[in-house]
What we know:
GO terms for molecular function: cyclic-di-GMP binding. It comes from Cellulomonas humilata. This is PilZ domain-containing protein. The chain is mostly beta strands. Helices cover 14% and strands 56% of the residues. It has helices at residues 36-40, 177-200; strands at residues 6-11, 14-24, 27-31, 46-53, 57-68, 72-84, 91-103, 109-120, 123-128, 137-143, 148-160, 166-172. The strands form two sheets. A six-stranded antiparallel beta barrel has the order 1-2-3-6-5-4.
Amino acid sequence: MHHLAHCSLSAEGRVLDGFVISCADGTLMMRTEPGAAGGAFRAGDDVQVLVLDDVRGEVRYTGWVAKVRATSMQIADLELTSTLQKRKVARVRIAQTCTGVVTSPEGDTRSLTFVVLDISAHGMRVSTTAELAERDRIAFRFPARDRVVALDAEVLRSHRTNGRSTQCGCRFVGLVERDLDTLFRYVLQTQGTQRRTRLRA
């Protein structure tokens, strides 16, 4: 369970990142950067464990540090505290510039440059200085962490901001399961990175 999923330990303001080597029978083995484990945690420390699982979503446990090695840690007596399956609702704020092609309902096409303001596995909010209308389709390639995903998004609503830009809410259409999984994984991983950055600030 959780094999190779990203995970992090936290306790009293200390945070340690890594990935799951194994998780079974109430024990989790975590791989860390060389030397990182010994400086942050010691055997006997009570910890909270956050696992970003591609299937189960955000999974949280409590436990205690049983072993500390140069590149790994063992967490014992895992107790599940929460599981949050966020595939349908998980959304992360970003600022990713993309280019694509817009096709109107009448079939007219033109190129488009826009900024993705937030994204989920099912849709996105974008900002652009170009004109976009409801039912326009945007075909573009999104650079997720694992790979670049070819996406087709339909504009559901748009409105002008106080400046010169237009913000639009879009939903993805024609997604295959692999692309859906990639986007969901991207959202979880990006949320985890942003969370750890806030904790360290």
